């Protein structure tokens, strides 16, 4: 689609636009949804679209073009220009990256076997059967296969191409109304795909969660399963964007250089992670993606930036454009040195939370939030697990980060409906977590 | 475009579909953002495409494309058929749809002030007005994120059972996040939205700047005068806004039939409600909850759902009794009923699934004064920030943003973050009186995978809850 990109760029320059970014996508996505051990619907999406960003005398605008005739391209650009002429400039706009750049192939981001995969239902059946073998009665979930091609052309000399694939599954297993478990597996190459592991984990947790009792409230040492902690980190990832901080949606406002987490916490964004579900070769302005340390040994080092925001704050882009809103690619909480058994034996009396959902903030700038454990929840007493139900984590994100006491060596890459930005995280032990429940 | 949707359905039937539907959607609009007084950019929205859904041998397949040629649509139909056939082999029982009366209808929502004729500059003035009015209060609001959005939504739905529905629904909205910093303390009104189906005149008449001013003044007052809320068993009066989120979360969602039958189990969860609970008491006599897509100019407005079924008000709870679930054709058939037109899709590239529209707590016969006059100790919760509910829709929590102490029948000083954490049955059984006036608040209801955030209104009348175990942070 570079011919389309070039046509758009040429016409945009003729009309007098300054910075221009043309990002074209060709997307083939397949989905199989299942519930009650059967497929509820199978879907296929085929889309071609061009995301367009233009600047005219510090006025900025964007649109998506799906009808790619020359006539429509010209009409769209003229519409943008006439609309922008009457608008006030964005005074804190400082341009896009100067290309060209060199790009390296990132291992395990493309696999022809996924493109050529004719029928993925076999993987669904394998995941369902693995969960049933562990004792589940009802199994639900979703499987995706992805094949994306992106073509980037900018007015600052960038011409870049990336092609990626992916396959992932999310499995939830149920025994009764109150006993369930969840497992996921997300990879970029077929040979690493392990749907059984997702089904097995979901089934195992559901089996362990039989006959749960009403949970307690108070402050507890909590072990978060990677699935659960990934949810919190995925929400946090938005708050690491400089845009979120300016707009009042981040607890990291005014905290650069300050301790915001426990000493053992190092959080990175890794845009070029091999086999990472969010990995891409370049950001939306063509800057090669990289590893950026956001929190190092508890100290907040940087927001995620695009070129304009970086120049505004007198620093370098972190290759996270988003031309309007920088965003993370793959969030990584660096693992620790505990084995899983050692971590659980640290907790004489605590709670193990295998999954959470519905994380909502009372106040984004202070970080006050609550989230609801779902699937297996367990009281941990001297290494023994006792299933409980109906509790809520009610705490503060800063407090959670500062109270992280131990991390396992074992880490998992998580991406599913509730974890929009992919996260790699170990099991995490957090001290004194607020737990509440309904008393009526 | 009519020919292309008809071609898709006919082509699917020729290829062996037992049922086929094609939905064309086109969205055109504008969005503008202002962050801390600076315009963040203009976004022109222009999107269109066709989605095709088929049943073959009891399996369901869906495919979509935004390449609107006959060849591309034919390829899309072929994919949907292939997927449905493969899916049918991993099913215990075939999917069947309820019988319905279908119509050929075209309808549109009229705009007195057509937003398509208004320049982005003039629309930006609306955001500037919010900025200026907030600044004029003298309250320190260092972070201000404000957004305007409009969209003309054109749909054509055609299915092999005889439905042909064309609609034009314009939607306009403003949203803000305002952070108040006073006296070393910070309070926030995040993602507050005003939204309608109709023309720009609806936003102008609604005056979103007045809502913003009210919010920042209430937050400043909370910072300077706010005290700890009472704890333990008290009476609680909830506003239409809080009643709205409560009916949406704990009545609308658990009454979605796809959730009741487990289809959403992996994502949005299941439900504490079971099919045999129809006719069971869930709340007090004064609780009636209605979901009505047909309310003129509502954010969740439609007259026909995305399966082509005619919409009507749905009485989910009548006088405390569960009376109706929200259904599409698939689950209406399972229940042996007709669909009540709750099938909605957010775009051409999404399947229609069971959704709410405008859900509200129906009015009672109390004035606001009558609701509070005999309360010795209680709280009036006007608005909320943090809220959530478990995935069976039973254990929920709402935290007050603007809230006041009620003492001896009078509204007193603001209270900080009163927490209502309660089960669904306890919540609706505790209501002993409902106000006369109904108000609505917009929201985006999330469900489905990939996510489908559909526009909804939530609301109702004021309600009084007796003996509620209110918590403090």
UniProtKB/TrEMBL annotation, chain A:
What are the recorded Gene Ontology BP terms?
Answer: proteolysis
Q: Where is the Metalloprotease TldD/E C-terminal domain?
A: 218-436
What superkingdom heads the lineage? Answer: Archaea
Q: Which residues form the Metalloprotease TldD/E central domain?
A: 115-207
> What residue stretch is flagged as signal peptide?
none
Gene3D superfamilies linked to this entry: PmbA/TldD superfamily
- One Pfam family recorded for the sequence: PmbA_TldD_2nd
Q: Which GO terms describe its molecular function?
A: metallopeptidase activity
Name assigned to this protein: TldE-like protein
From TrEMBL, chain B:
Matching entries from InterPro entries are given as: Metalloprtase-TldD/E_C (IPR045569), Metalloprtase-TldD/E_cen_dom (IPR045570), Metalloprtase-TldD/E_N (IPR002510), Peptidase_U62_metallo (IPR051463), TldD (IPR025502), TldD/PmbA_N (IPR035068), TldD/PmbA_sf (IPR036059)
Q: Which parts of the sequence belong to the Metalloprotease TldD/E C-terminal domain? A: 232-447
* Annotated ranges, domain Metalloprotease TldD/E central: 114-191
Q: Where is the Metalloprotease TldD/E N-terminal domain?
A: 20-84
Q: What is an annotated GO biological process for this record, any one? A: proteolysis
Keywords (alphabetical) are:
Hydrolase, Metalloprotease, Protease
Example GO molecular function term?
metallopeptidase activity
Which domain of life does this protein belong to?
Answer: Archaea
Q: Write down any Gene Ontology CC term.
A: cytosol
Task: Please name the Pfam families in this protein's record.
Answer: PmbA_TldD_1st, PmbA_TldD_2nd, PmbA_TldD_3rd
- Record-stated family: Belongs to the peptidase U62 family.
Protein name (database record): TldD-like protein
The source organism is Thermococcus gorgonarius
């Amino acid at each position: 689609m570079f011919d389309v990109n070039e046509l758009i760029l040429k016409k945009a320059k003729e009309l007098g636009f300054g910075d221009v970014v043309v990002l074209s996508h060709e997307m083939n996505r397949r989905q199989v949804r299942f519930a009650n051990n059967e497929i509820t619907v199978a879907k296929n999406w085929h889309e071609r679209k061009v995301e367009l960003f233009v600047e005219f005398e510090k006025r900025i605008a964007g649109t998506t073009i799906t009808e790619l005739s020359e006539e429509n391209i010209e009409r769209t650009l003229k519409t943008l220009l006439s609309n922008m002429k009457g608008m006030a400039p964005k005074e804190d706009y400082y341009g896009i990256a100067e290309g060209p750049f060199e790009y390296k192939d990132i291992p395990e981001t493309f696999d022809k076997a996924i493109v050529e995969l004719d029928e993925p239902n076999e993987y669904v059946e394998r995941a369902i059967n693995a969960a049933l073998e562990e004792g589940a009665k009802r199994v639900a979930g979703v499987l995706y296969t992805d094949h994306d091609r992106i073509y980037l052309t900018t007015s600052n000399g960038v011409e870049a191409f990336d092609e990626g694939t992916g396959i992932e599954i999310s499995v939830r297993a149920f025994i009764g109304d109150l006993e369930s478990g969840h497992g996921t597996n997300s990879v970029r190459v077929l040979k690493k795909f392990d749907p059984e592991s997702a089904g097995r984990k979901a089934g195992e947790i559901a089996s362990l969660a039989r006959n749960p009792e009403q949970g307690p409230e108070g402050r507890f040492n909590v072990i978060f399963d990677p699935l659960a902690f990934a949810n919190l980190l995925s929400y946090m990832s938005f708050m690491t964007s400089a845009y979120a901080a300016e707009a009042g949606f981040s607890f990291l406002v005014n905290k650069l250089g300050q301790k915001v987490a426990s000493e053992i916490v190092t959080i990175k964004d890794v845009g070029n992670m091999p086999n990472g579900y969010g990995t891409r070769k370049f950001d939306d302005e063509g800057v090669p993606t990289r590893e950026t340390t956001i929190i190092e040994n508890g100290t907040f080092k940087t927001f995620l930036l695009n070129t304009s925001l970086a120049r505004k704050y007198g620093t370098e882009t972190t290759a996270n454009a988003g031309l309007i809103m920088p965003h993370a690619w793959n969030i990584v909480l660096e693992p620790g040195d505990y084995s899983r058994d050692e971590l659980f034996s640290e907790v004489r009396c605590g709670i193990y939370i295998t999954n959470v959902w519905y994380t909502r903030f009372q106040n984004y700038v202070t970080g006050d939030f609550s989230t609801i454990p779902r699937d297996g929840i367990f009281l941990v007493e001297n290494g023994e697990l006792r299933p409980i139900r109906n509790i809520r984590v009610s705490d503060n994100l800063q407090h959670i980060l500062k109270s992280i006491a131990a991390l396992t060596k074992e880490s998992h890459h998580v991406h599913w409906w509730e974890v929009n930005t992919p996260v790699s995280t170990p099991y995490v032990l957090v001290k004194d977590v607020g737990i509440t429940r309904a008393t009526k | 475009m009519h020919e292309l949707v008809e071609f898709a359905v006919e082509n699917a039937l020729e290829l062996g579909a037992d049922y086929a539907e094609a939905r064309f959607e086109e969205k055109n609009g504008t969005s503008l953002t202002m962050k801390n007084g600076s315009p963040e950019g203009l976004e022109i929205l222009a999107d269109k495409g066709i989605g095709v859904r088929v049943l073959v041998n009891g399996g369901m397949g869906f495919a979509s494309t935004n390449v609107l040629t006959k060849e591309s649509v034919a390829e899309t139909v072929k994919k949907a058929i292939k997927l449905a056939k493969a899916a049918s082999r991993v099913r215990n029982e075939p999917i069947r749809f309820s019988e319905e009366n279908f119509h050929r209808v075209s309808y549109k929502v009229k705009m007195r002030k057509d937003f398509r004729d208004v320049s982005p500059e003039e629309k930006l003035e609306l955001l500037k007005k919010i900025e200026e009015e907030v600044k004029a209060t003298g309250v320190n609001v260092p972070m201000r994120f404000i957004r305007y959005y409009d969209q003309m939504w054109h749909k054509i739905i055609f299915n092999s059972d005889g439905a042909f529905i064309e609609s034009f629904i314009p939607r306009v909205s403003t949203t803000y996040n305002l952070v108040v910093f006073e006296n070393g303390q910070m309070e926030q009104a995040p993602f507050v939205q005003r939204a309608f189906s109709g023309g720009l005149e609806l936003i102008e008449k609604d005056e979103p700047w007045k809502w913003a001013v009210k919010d920042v003044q209430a937050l400043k007052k909370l910072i300077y005068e706010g005290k700890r809320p009472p704890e333990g068993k008290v009476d609680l009066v909830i506003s239409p806004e809080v009643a709205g989120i409560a009916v949406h979360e704990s009545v609308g969602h658990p009454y979605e039939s796809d959730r009741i039958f487990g289809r959403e189990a992996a994502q949005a969860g299941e439900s504490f409600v079971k099919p045999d609970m129809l006719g069971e008491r869930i709340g007090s006599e004064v609780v009636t909850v209605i979901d009505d897509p047909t309310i003129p100019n509502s954010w969740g407005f439609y007259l026909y759902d995305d399966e082509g079924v005619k919409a009507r008000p749905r009485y989910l709870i009548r006088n405390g009794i569960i009376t109706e679930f929200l259904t599409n054709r698939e689950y209406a058939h399972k229940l042996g009923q007709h669909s009540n037109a709750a099938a909605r899709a957010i775009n051409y590239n999404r399947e229609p699934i069971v959704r709410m529209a405008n859900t509200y707590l129906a009015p009672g016969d109390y004035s606001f004064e009558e609701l509070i006059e005999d309360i010795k100790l209680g709280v009036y919760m006007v608005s909320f920030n943090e809220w959530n509910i478990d995935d069976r829709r039973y254990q929920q929590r709402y935290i007050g943003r603007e809230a006041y102490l009620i003492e001896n029948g009078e509204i007193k000083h603001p209270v900080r973050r009163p927490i209502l954490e309660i089960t669904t049955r306890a919540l609706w059984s505790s209501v002993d009186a409902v106000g006369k006036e109904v108000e609505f608040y917009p929201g985006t209801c999330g469900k489905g995978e990939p996510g489908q955030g559909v526009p909804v209104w939530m609301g109702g009348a004021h309600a009084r809850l007796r003996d509620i175990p209110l918590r403090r942070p």
